[in-house]
Predict the structure.
Amino acid sequence: MDKAEQQSELDFAVIGSGFGGSVAALRLAEKGYQVRVFEKGRRFAAGDFPKTNWHMKRWLWLPLLNFLGPFKISLFRHVTVFSGVGVGGGSLVYANTLPVPKDSFFAAPTWAHLGDWQTALAPFYRKALQMLGATTNKHLTRTDTLMRDVATDIGLDKEFSPTEVAIYFGQPGKTVADPYFGGDGPDRTGCIHCGACMTGCRHGAKNTLDRNYLYLAEKRGAVIQPNSEVVTVKPRHGGGYELSVKQRLGWLRFRRTTVYAKQVVFSGGVLGTVNLLLKMQADRRCLPNLSPHLGHFVRTNSESIIGIMSHDQSYDFSQGIAISSIITADEHSHFEPVRYGAGSGAFRLLMAPHAPGKTFWQRMGAMARAVTKSPWGWVKAVFINDFSKQTLILLYMRSLDDTLSFARRHSPWLGGLKTMGSNVGIHGTKPMAFLPEATALAHRIAAKINGVVCNVFPESLLGIASTAHLLGGCCMGTSAADGVIDTHHRVFGYEGLYVVDGSAVSATPGVNPSLTITALAERAMDLIPPKTEARPQRGQ
Ligand SMILES: Cc1cc2nc3c(=O)[nH]c(=O)nc-3n(C[C@H](O)[C@H](O)[C@H](O)COP(=O)(O)OP(=O)(O)OC[C@H]3O[C@@H](n4cnc5c(N)ncnc54)[C@H](O)[C@@H]3O)c2cc1C
Ligand code: SF4
């Protein structure tokens, strides 16, 4: 390494600015390290988010079409994945909901042998809740009353509670100086309950990562580089890593730069981190010694997302925050009502009747039965005025494991990742598009609101599950023979590499996972000593 390279070498390169990357950026900067965060998406100001999701160019991430919005839809053979892209990662489009998982998550056999996770993570959950500005939702709506009624009908009235959310409520529409970090953070504006959290908050009320962790990290010297995708990570002779960064300069215009870093944190979310690491594993010059378990045990949080469209125009399900209440169905399962803001009806383009069935023909039969049972209901549903006002989205999640694997696609045209339905029988089943409990619940709600039950079409037509909570793929183990990282999030086989994001989650939380990702990241960063101290050795 020449002198110039030595001088430009970062202490830490952080790849991705979601929950894991943001925690890493702040905590490493606080410890005196020189940190640079590379984020492939753009930076968003409040006014950059679309007014509704019909503004596809501002909503969707489709860079080939120059759509640089924060919401990405990835279609695979076994799963459709929704995720966030941009400075702040998934926090830009998430529904702010921050539940702590039930005991069964911490005791799951996939990682319980590696530590007492409940005890180890407890202080970091507290820290994460405080940093993300979590507070109890105090504004319950007609939708929540309806959900409480449904819960009462099935004997779950005591299990209903308002959500803990990362939102500043204050006085609706009133801007105040930073209410969270003693004046060190940015202003906030009181939430106006417009329901638009998942297209991006245009009002400055949502505590996205660029308003807490990343904001403070930049103040402490971390550099955040948007529009910059890390495409290779290579070890260097004598230690450290060489990263190749593809910087977007304009539509289909890129510049490649080389960056040197002593240590690297992979925080690209499951799709970003697993994709990059699998690519590096396949290249003998890069990271060929990564664990053979890379890409295995990917989990969907065992989710079922179902729409219930009411043709009773007196309902307006779009009012409130994106997820306003949560109901515990049993030891393993939770459900929540979810909403988009008024006018955000783009998902109606993807809707088909809810049609459970193992085979294509079973699903076609179920679809035909649904339509013939309520033909007039479906005609009215097709022509409803405002999809988001008249659709209640039901999110059902279970902590029971379902897993699949990701592998590299070798086609030069398609590139990237492909899913394989393997690991079945090791931990759980492959993700299912339909959960009988969720279907029964959706029909119960539909009966109450005079509605019809629907799904996105990959579920109804192809039986492919959908998820906004993809987890795993770089799971913890005792060595490369049974995991990709150790309990300190250090990558087996390579000194100075870490995985700190959803791909490190090694069991199924069964609730919205961002708080857990943040708590794990806080713990991982806590284990790294300040710059002046010696680096920890494996096994410590
Ligand atoms: C619509 C929606 C609603 C949701 N609601 C909730 C909710 O209410 N509560 C909850 O807990 N969770 C929710 N989630 C899930 C939550 O957003 C994710 O679990 C979480 O964001 C994952 O965090 P992460 O740190 O793994 O990575 P992410 O937040 O996904 O961030 C990864 C970042 O890395 C970037 N990146 C990837 N690869 C590269 C690369 N090679 N170079 C540079 N940058 C790269 C990506 O662009 C992205 O910005 C929701 C998700 C969606 C899509
Ligand atoms: S409900 Fe509206 S104002 Fe409140 S956080 Fe969500 S998008 Fe922002």
Notes: The chain has a mean pLDDT of 93. The radius of gyration is 23 Å. The chain has 14 helices and 27 strands.
